[in-house]
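Listing 4. Sequential folding, example run.
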Amino acid sequence: MEEPTCSQREAASVVFNLPGYDVIEAVDLPLGGRRRVVVQAIDRDEGCPDCGAISTKVHAWVKQQVRDIPAGGDTVEVVVRKRRMVCAEPACGRQTFTQATEQLPARARCLTRLREHLADAVLDSGRAITEVTGAFGVAWWTVQDAVDAAVVELPEVDHTRVRRLGVDEHRFGRARFFRDDATGRWQRVEPWMSTFVNTDTGQVLGIVDGRNSTGIQDWLDARTEAWRDRVEVVAIDPADPSEQRHHPPAPPVRRTPSRTRGATPCPSRFDTYRRLLITARSRAAAWPKSTVGRDCRRSHPPRRAAGGVR
């Protein structure tokens, strides 16, 4: 007689594959063909969120319907059967608390693995948010919240394969003035920071204070040589100060100017805008003041407002 030596779980729990949970019920709902899966946490012990005392006494059972990833191409209605525990510390002000897990934190309505799939679909696969909402059956703000949380959390840079690196400075606040205690003079402080971005996915890789070459070069030197060798393109600011900030470059890569900035120098762009503004003001001054809704072209007759010109 042969007996398996690995851990044995029910077939439904293995197929559903929700970490830390067992499937206790799975039924097909009528009039729609949807499926309902009822799961329950494996761990029975839970610590109080206020005092941290471990409790094993169950006060009541509650059920919560949550969002999960599609299974078999269809949306599955997942119901979590949670324990409401009694705090084991008599002096604690919280008498009861609901069990929380890694997949379903407190006050969460979506499982953690669903939020991870939503962020990966937008950041890694480059899919539009509207497309992801239809594929996973969630609201638009649910996808946006998952993307915002994933972008704010910095990844493990050394374990991230980056082919196109974007480096640019950002001003995150207004300039402020501080008085020097030694000299008594006011000094202007510019709140600048330099950001490293994976341009393939839009994921922020790192942030350093300031906009000089010291912080940027230190961040590049902290990466391994193999990581720098994988970088093929670096998108930087084409201005001369940016070239000085990124000199000398860590890997011998091809540089491309950022699309958010024009390729022409700033003075020429400002001159163009100034000439357009002067031309528009001169044309506006030459137009009759008594007309309403006139076209930009002089050849078109003016259109008067209903009820006459006031």
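-- end of first protein; second protein begins --
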Amino acid sequence: MRSDATGPEERSPEGWLDWTTQRQALASDPACSAWVSANAGSGKTHVLTQRVIRLLLAGCRPSAILCLTYTKAAASEMSNRVFEKLAEWATLDDTTLEKRIEAIEGKRPPTAKIQEARRLFARALETPGGLKIQTIHAFCEALLHQFPLEANVAGHFSVLDDRAAAVLLADARRALLTATAAASDGELAEAFATVLDLADDTGLEKLLAAIVANRAPIQAFLDHASGRGGMEAHLRAALGLEPGETAGTVMAAVWPLAGLNGPALDDYIDLGLRLGGAKPSAIADGLRAVRAIDDAATRYSKLVELFFNGGGKPKAESAFLNAAMRRAAPQLELRVEEARSHMLACVDRLSIVQMYGATRAALVLAERLSPRLRSAQEGTQPARFRGSHPPHGGTACPKRRRCLGALQAGSGDRPYPRRRGAGYESRSVDDHPVARGGFLCRRNGACGRPHDLRRRRREAVDLFLPGSPAGALFA
């Protein structure tokens, strides 16, 4: 039977079952680094459970094993399987337990290992905090609780779940609407009017939710723009708009039309009404009516109807000139093309101005919403994983007694600090197939120079990631 991933030589159900069992035993061997990818229901959680048990049988301390999952359900399922297996071993007789261990490891265990297997359940229960089988979010939360100074978060924060976030958003939105009613903040009222004009109440709700979800990059942009002339100047420069350029100035610049103005417009109207078919004569009659309109916005709207179809696309040249008009006045062809290009440029320019207005309105709402949301958050002291600012107004003080010592380059080392005595120690895995980079050293004393931990003892730490669509196992 081949040991590669192409499958067994004997393509029978028995052959596939034996091959799968062999591959699962290889993946659960703690001496091997493995990546497991398989379909749902194919036994990934079983393999991970076997690997944890084999690590415990090999003498690994329960506190040195970390299992990370994507969902709480996966963490609960894996924890239940491990403890059910260990609890069962505590009550089995020697012969049955010997067969169970032999089935897992592929060899007959010594008597000492059988006795040790009986004590694994008690050891796992007595481990402070129990086996570390948890979600990625729970693991990150635990790290923040252990290192609040290094992470610049409040020491007794609470996680902001979806329901609490919705309540905070509602409170911040209510405060924002209350501020809009005040006559002193006309800019905020104008921003609300712009947003409601472009979208209904549902659109406003979606915009506020998007602002909250992206408040960190939005705040970074506002801070960046404040040092470069302000938000308006920065937006105008980015969109290529001139100072003072508005929708009104763009619509006013549409008339007179480039190419079709003065005597050329008179000739086109006269020729279109005499020789044009249905479409050219309608456009000529429309241009004659537009010439009498004084309001720039109304005139712009009529011109858009003449030069563009219902779908917003420019009308074809044949809609402006037929064969008879071309023969009678061939010079009008270039003038009509110039007028069409002029209208297209003005419509594009107005779209950019409108984009600027909508973006500016959204940023004004974000600028007003951010401090109110931050104030509501500080009232409940939740963990702010996005857009979090240092509580002390800056970076960590380099003279603190408990400090972040160094982040050095190593050979496949991963941060995994563990309390030992007065300081912390890094436990890492050499030649890890995925983890490359540096290691974390956290010790007492001021930050003076990088602390070299290469001489410290290193132990294997398993990192499990079950519960993903394909499943994954790191060792």
